[in-house]
Amino acid sequence: MDTIIQFDEYLFSLINGQWRLDFLDHLLPIWRHKLFWLPLYVFLIWFIIINFKSKALSFIVAIIILMTVSDTLSSKILKKTIKRPRPCKVEHVAENMNLLKGCSSSYSMPSSHAVNHFTIAFFLIGTLGMLFGWIKIPLFLWASSIAYAQVYIGVHFPIDVLVGSAIGCFLGVSGAYLYNLRWCLNENAI
């Protein structure tokens, strides 16, 4: 286990230290902020309402339920059970890191940003992606870039976002499967 932690800390030092670029120092703190993506969320709701009229409400409610489960699981249950400190709370890591956002008092494992964004991305890939195949890669890259930003700005270790991403993938795929099982009774339905 010590070898994994050492590798995780080493990878953190590369992403948060050696692999830094000035424009990313300005972009990524904003990029991973939830309000930055508000226009995308509004667009998705509009898109769902316009394209899937009678099923739009069930789709939006499914997203809300899934996001509630995702965030509760990551921030209220897993973080408080695992209790891994954030990089800024690990003394030998904190002395050499570039923290681009304040040091949170919450725990680090898993990254709730990674869990939540991968959950929504994989739910949309498994639902909207059935009808609009082109959306799959942009959704995956969107969630991945936000997860990467968490390490880059110094608030999570790489394993925190990898575990969070895996949990989010599982929740998103499971949510899409359950939604499709209940609501997608023909190829024109979402």
Overview of the molecule:
By secondary structure, this protein is mostly helical. It has one domain (28-183). Helices cover 71% and strands 0% of the residues. It has helices spanning 2-18, 22-31, 38-51, 56-82, 91-94, 112-131, 136-152, 158-183. The longest helix has 27 residues, at 56-82. The protein is elongated and about 55 Å long.
Jot down its keywords.
190 residues; mainly alpha; 8 helices; elongated
The description of the largest β-sheet is:
none
Q: Catalogue the unreliable spans.
A: none
How many structural domains? 1
Q: Please give the oligomerization state of what you see.
A: single chain
Question: Nutshell version of this structure?
Answer:
The protein has eight helices and no strands.
Q: How do the strands and helices of this protein lay out in sequence?
A:
Elements: H1 2-18, H2 22-31, H3 38-51, H4 56-82, H5 91-94, H6 112-131, H7 136-152, H8 158-183
Helix pairs in contact: 2-7, 3-4, 4-6, 4-8, 6-7, 6-8, 7-8
